[in-house]
Amino acid sequence: MNWIDTIIQGILLGGLYALFAAGLALVFGIMRLVNLAHGDLIVLAAFLILLLVSALGLNPFIATAAALPVMFVLGWAMQFLVLNRTLGNDILPPLLVTFGLSVVIQNGLLEGFSADSRRISAGALETASLQIGPISIGTMPLLTFLSAVGVIVALNLIFYRTSLGRAFRATSDDSATAGLMGIRAERIFATATGLAMMVVTIAALYLGTRANFDPTMGPARLIYAFEAVIIGGLGSFWGTLAGGIIIGVAQTVGATINPEWQILAGHIAFLLVLLVRPRGLFPRAVD
Amino acid sequence: MALLETRGLTAFYGDFQALFGVDIALDEGETVAVIGANGAGKSTLLRSISGLIRNVPGQIRFDGREIGGLAAPDVLQLGIAMVPEGRRLFPSLSVEENLLIGRYGRVGNGAWSLDAIYDLFPVLKERRHQPGTALSGGQQQMVAIGRGLMSNPRVLLCDEVSLGLAPVVVRDIYAAFPKIRATGASIVIIEQDIGQALKVADRVYCMMEGRVTLSGTPATLSREDIHAAYFGAHAR
C-alpha cells in the first residue's frame, strides 16, 4: 500500500511540474522562443501573490485571481517591448536576453524581498486531506493536479476552438502569410506570452503554498519545466502533463528508496525517456 | 481615378533592384492581368502592393491613400487581399480553419462566407475537416482563393494561381472568376499562362525585367506584340 501511496503523491506532484511546463510549452510552440527566465517569472508571481496576501490580507486564491491580469499585462509588455526584438533566424539573442532577464528578476527580488525564504499560507487547507480507503490524499496536491488538468483543457480549447487559437497556429506555421490574413505576429506573440504568464501565476500559487520559496530558486523550476516539456514532445499540452507526472513519480519513488535520490531520480527518468523516444512521447507531426 | 494604382514603383531585395518604375492601374470592378516570364517582376509587384515588401508610400495608391509603406495586416484591413504564390496554406489548420482565418483581420461588407465559398468550390465542403495540406494542388488553390475572399476584399491579388496545375484543373479554377467578379471585387491576376490571362482580363500588362513593356485590352493586343513584350524579341 505504501507504493500506491508513493505513486499517487508522485502523480499529484506531476501536476505542479505540468503547471511549470505548460506556459513554457505555449510560448515555445508558437514562437520557438525558449524563455530562460520562465522559472524566475514563476517565483516573481509567487512574490506578487505573497505581497497581495500579506499587504491586503487576501485569501491566497483571491490574491491569485487578482494577480492573473497583472501578470498577463506584464507578460504582454515583456514580449511586445523586449522579446519580440530578439526573434529572428538567429536563436542566440532570445537565449541571451531571457538569461539576462533571469538575472535581473532574481536580483530585483533579492533587493525587494531579501534572501529570506517565504511561504504563502493557505490556512487549514494546507493540512486538509481526503481519506480514500487506506490512502490519504492531500487537498492541496489534489487541487494542484486538478488545476493542471484544468489549465491544459483550457489551453487546448483556446488553441483548437477559438479564432485566437487559429491565429496562434497560423502564425507559428508561417508568420509572413499570417500577416496577409491581417494577423499581427507581434501582438499574437505578446498575447501568447501574456497567457503563459497567467499559467505561471497559477503555478506560483501552488509553488508558494506547497513549500518555502526564495528569489534564487527559479532556475531549478525551469529545469523541471524543460524536462516535462521535452518528455511530452514539444508543443503538446497533454504531453507536458505526462512529462510532469513521469518526473513527479520518479522523484517520489526515488525519495522513498533513499531521500538523497529524489532530484536525481527525476533527471534519470528524463534521460531514459530521451534515450527511448528522442522526440518525446507525443511529438507534434512535423517540425 | 483608379481604385488601385502604382506610380513609378521601384522595389529592391537588398541591393538588387527588381522593379524600375512600374505604372499600373486597376479600376473598380475591373480584372487586370499581369503577364511575363519568370523574373519579370510580377510577383514583386504583388508583394509590394500587399505589404510583404515595403515601398515608398506614394508609389502605391489605393482609393486615394498612399499605401506603399504599409505592412501586410494594414493593407488587408483597407480591403486588399492576396492569394500568395505557392498557395501557402497553413499546415496546422484544417480546410475550414484555413478559410476562417481569412476573416481574422477583416470582415468587409460583401457576399463571402463559408457557405458562399463552399458554393463556389463544392469539393471543399466534403473535405473541410481535413488538413489543408492533405488536398490536391488544385483543391489547395481553391482553399487559398477562398481564404483570400473571406475578408470580402475590394481588391483580390492572385499570384500564379495556375502554377503547377493540370490544364483541366486550371480551367475549373478560372471558372470561378466570373462569379467572383459578379460580387463587385476588382482583381489582379498574375499569370504565365497567357491564354488564360487574356480570357478573363479586361486589360493586360506585360512585364519584362522589372518594367511594363506592353499594356492594352486583350482585343487590341496581337500575339506578335505580346510575344515581343514577353521575350524581348524585336523590342521597340
From TrEMBL, chain B:
GO terms for molecular function: ATP binding. Keywords: Amino-acid transport, ATP-binding, Nucleotide-binding, Transport. It comes from the Bacteria. SMART domains: AAA (SM00382). Residues 4-234 form the ABC transporter domain. Belongs to the ABC transporter superfamily. This is ABC transporter ATP-binding protein.
